[in-house]
User: Fold this.
Amino acid sequence: MLKPEKCISCRTCELICSFTRAEEFSPQLSAVSVIHYDKAMISVPIMCTQCEDAPCMRVCPVQAIYENEDGTKIIDYKKCIGCKMCISACPLGNMAFDGKAVFKCDLCGGDPQCARFCPSGAIEYKEANPSSLVKRKDLAEKFKEVFGEEV
Amino acid sequence: MYGLIGKMLRVNLTEGTVAEEYLSDVLVKKYLGGRGLGTKIYVDEVDKDTDAFAPENKLILMTGPLTGTFATSAGRLMWITKAPLTGTIGCANSGGEFGPELKYAGFDGVIFEGKSEKPVYLYVKDGKGELRSAEELWGQSVFVTTDKLIEETDPDARVCCIGPAGENKVLFAGIMNEKNRAAGRGGLGAVMGSKNLKAVVARGTGSIKVADKEGFLAACIDARKKLKENPVTGAGLGAYGTEILVNIINASGGLPKHNWRDGAVDPDADQISGETLVEKYLVRNKGCFGCSMACGRVTKIKDGPYKSAGEGPEYEAAWALGSSCGIHDLAAICRVNFLCNEYGMDPITLGSTFACAMEMFDKGLLTKEEMGGNLAFGNADAIVEFATKTALREGFGDKLAEGSYRMAESYGVPELSMSVKKQEMPAYDGRSLQGMGLEYATSNRGGCHVRGYLTSPEILGIPMKLDPLVTDGKAEMLKIFQDLTAVVDSVGICLFTTFGIGLAEIGNMVRTATGWDMTDEELLATGDRIWNMEKLYNLSQGFTRADDNLPPRLLTEPLPEGPAKGKVCELDVMLEEYYRLRGWNEKSIPTKEKLSELGL
Amino acid sequence: MIVRYFAYYRNDTGLKEEKLLLEPLTALELLGKLSERYGETMRKQWLSPDGKDIHPDVIFLIDGRNIDFVDGKNSLVQKDAVVSLFPRIAGG
Assistant:
């Protein structure tokens, strides 16, 4: 779950992702990238959105991308031939190539490290709730504060 | 090599050449990187009689072994050269993202020598360095320069550059990166300008490796956890930024007013405080590379005469342009701070120089005609106007650009410059914070607070509580702080981490990153070595015990009010003890035993 | 006496400053009284769980002097004193 308004632009997510994946520090090897907008004064962390109908999965000629029980799209490196069609297919730029293989966010097997170490809560890993409900609750809170009875 | 890449670039601006060099393992282990290694290279290679602006002078950019890794707040880099403002060794630290990007590009640092005939910039990309023309950029602001260079080189490049202040050799011009991060003090930007070097651009897709992967990860996780749990680093700094200090320093009777002339209690301090900034103008906070504290301020003044946006101000800038100038319009202070970033100029020296001129004006030593304006205490419009004039050396700005000491001296009143070794003291009155008085007098780069930040124990009670009004124990604590700070500045992490972690955590991160077999004591001793190396250089420049001094105002004018009422800074007693603990003689010269102990 | 609140103590109490008419009392006693007024959230921030000590994250100044260097929690706050309360946060 992304809350870009909380992003402090520190790129800790990129550091820990790169180290978790490749045991080295390099934003180039990270599956998450922080995009910074100077004039708009905001930064946005971007990683694979685990599309419901994933183009990368559909385009792969050897069916090397599969979906696990959590809905995460994972690359099976035993099958992957490195054709990089998935990179072209992803409309969001979330498939990358690290010089040896294609890679994407795989949610670290269920314990995403970016969320673990994000200092501000801009990246959070939560149960798959429809996110609109969470945001609706945030808004409802404000009405409660203003119009509700003192608790 | 682990942690560090092990490679430097040597750029000869006269010849127009760029060459690769390897770092020596021996040297690296003895001086760590950053401030230590950069200073070592500088003192070894540059003849002591070289003028700061001479082509023979060198300008060194150096990161540390932890820069660009998962270590706590590990985004720091250091610039080293002879400081034009003071003539001491000049060493200015900056955060942001440039340091890590340079390492990802394959280099730990760059040595700039000579002088280019025409304005140039260095572009470092993935293992290669290239000098390119910066003629079109000369005269452009830091913001425009940064944007244009990113366009010209790579959308993900990071840029270090000078603005018009550096080009005009303002003696307190800084070197900026990511537009708003500053290696601010001492005028290092002027040295860069004197070499016709406009910028350094880095773009790197490489990586940094550590020696003990599991160990390093564990050390970093432990240190990050401690920072998170600490109220200062885990909440306070991010929420309020450094300006949170305004009210507490003021309440403690330590916020100097009107060029330190009218005591150190400012009844209007709250108007320029961190709380007020959050209330009125803060958009959000921001962090440097890999930093969880995120004390940066993203600020917007939406309307009014000072409508503007940018980053900052920090505590020191807010005080220098605020209380010291008798100004409490936070919007005006923000505006000038943004101008300082845009022009590439140190707001601490700028504000203090303004304050000095304002006192001189009060005394009738300066007139409105001569200044070409009304630089008087409380005049917010004037500091906006004169910020530009100073950066561009226009009219009276030309005198202001020399800093308060040279300006005041030219009128026969050097004692009105609130400086030590010609660098203006920052925002803590040494009469109410005795330890800070000692720090200003002994800092190797002149009036500076960061080299030995005793404000932390004296006011915040971190890591232990020291009574600000007494002299006992200050010398001992200061030496430890100065040595530890030298280590922090050399390994590439932010000094503010030390509000929450200490030598042990830093030692763990350094050892596991580099693979060096070094105890915590040995690491701290390295800080001592670096401090003494800097001192030896200053001695070679003719600085003596007499220069480890404070302006007469702090020694002879007691504070008129507040908890420190009646106090002056009792420097002498602290200084004697300090020299003894440092292993220096009464002339502040390190003894032979001390030097041999440190391997110098 | 005057009590001044800083940083997030301002958010929690809703005040920057207030005037109180009290007889001289100790620093600990004053925080006890203020905790009664402002409730549990403040009590947790200002006092130890058993209420016998001031919370270590509080910086308590009486007329600019930190109570650590006067008499700790037993430091006397006079009728005309100015008390400044800060959470332990920092700068640079």
Observations:
- The domain at 7-203 of chain B is CATH 3.60.9.10 (Aldehyde Ferredoxin Oxidoreductase;  A, domain 1).
- Chain B has a mean pLDDT of 97.
